[in-house]
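Internal tracking record. Fields below are filled automatically when a chain is submitted to the structure queue. Please do not edit lines marked as system-generated. If the sequence contains nonstandard residues, flag them in the REMARKS field before resubmitting.
Queue: standard
Priority: normal
Entity type: single polypeptide chain
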Amino acid sequence: MAILRVKQIREMKPEEISKKIYDIKLELMKEFGNVRMGRPIKNSGKIREMRRTLARLETLKRQKGAAKKNG
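SYSTEM-GENERATED OUTPUT FOLLOWS
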């Protein structure tokens, strides 16, 4: 999973953002499942970065939706 920056997200269409959100949530569930099962984490910062990327995606998706409503 690549780290997405704000500039990259702003260039995406809303459908692409929704798909990325879905993909990251799915990957996060897998990672959390591995942690709960006691498997060692290869990259401890991966979960944190995925959560931050997810927050960026959701924030910019919400901003784009508000911009459409306001004109």
